[in-house]
Amino acid sequence: MSYHPENPMIVQSDKTILLEVDHPMYEDARDDLARFAELEKSPEHIHTYRITPLSLWNTASSGVTNDTILKIFSDFSKYDVPQNIIEDIKDHIGRYGKLKLIKRNGDFLITSEDQYLITEITHNKHIIPLIKQQLNQLEFTIAPLHRGHIKQVMIKIGFPVLEKQGWIAEALCTEIRIPLAEELRMEYAVAELREKFRISSENPLKNTIIRQLLKRHDGDNVLVIGQYLSQLKTISTELNAPLITGKTSNLERERLYGEFKRGNVKILVVSKVANFAINLPDANVAIQVSGTFGSRQEEAQRLGRILRPKQGENRAHFYSLITRDTRDQDFAIKRQLFLTEQGYQYEIHDYEDVLKEKE
To answer: Which pLDDT score is estimated for 273?
Structure first.
């Protein structure tokens, strides 16, 4: 076994990766790891990442190859990478894109170049009820209402569906993990569980990231969405942006929606009323600052606000601002799983990396 003590990373056979925080190569290694592994623990000196099928399929969707990942290991690992890890990565990356979801003549089709894979899929007891019509050995149709369900089932059986979109905007989902503000750490430590969730959801350091994201998306139509009214009122005041809540009159809501659609208002701050009420086809960025205990329904509704087709670049951005190592992150994991099950590209970024964009 080769040994490179000058490197900062250890890849373990249980699919976890240990990274030395105080190492001079830490930042480069961290940035590369974030492309294909999920940060699980971040104590002071050693950070722990984990490789999962979902993390590998997400990275494959962004164009990262098996060879790229192995090159990262070669550049940063202290020891040889366990053989089971190499084979698992190759296998999972190789599965991405074997099944495609397309739209043709108004029908939704699952298609593949591998007739044996299609045969296996169409004989799966969980897939059979979702099949509308078998067209040939390589294609079958599904009902539009089954689109999300069949993508979840495909992930569970190990073959993620590559969605050839166009009928909706392409969505890039990004979770930004933020430390809890120092002045709230003692209050959080002694709080009951429900109160811990509120404290971490209302973390004021999220406001700094909101401002940074607005610089990134200068000129875009942005929704800032949250649950806690005191938090939203503060954000609305800091951004000098209109706030829509359940108490906003219907007349005022319609006025603000109209201003937003016409481009006269570029930022709207909205409460849970936005989950059900608004139809804003020109919104292409959503920033979620707080939510309801990992609700999948809520996540679908909020993402739906920005997924309608757009002129020009048909791409939408959905940001979730999460307080690291708190109840906020615990529930965010459920929402992350929902989005990745739906087949959306999902990335996790660190607070400090986003702030560096100022430099």
So the answer is: 64
Q: What is the mean pLDDT of residues 332-351?
A: 72
Residues 87 and 216 in one domain: no
Cα–Cα distances in Å, from 321 out to 202, 206, 208, 289, 332? Answer: 10, 6, 11, 5, 9
**Residue 54 above 70 pLDDT?**
yes
Q: How far apart are CA 21 and CA 5, in angstroms?
A: 15
For the chain, what is the largest distance between any 2 Cα atoms, rounded to a whole number of angstroms? 71
- By the 10 Å C-beta count (0-12 exposed, 13-18 middle, 19+ buried), 18 is classed as middle
Domain end, chosen from 71, 95, 119, is at 95
CA dist 175 and 351 (Å) reads 10
Q: Are 13 and 80 in contact (CB under 8 A)?
A: no
- How far is it, in rounded angstroms, from Cα 286 to Cα 99? 29
Of 141, 163, 185, the domain-final residue: 163
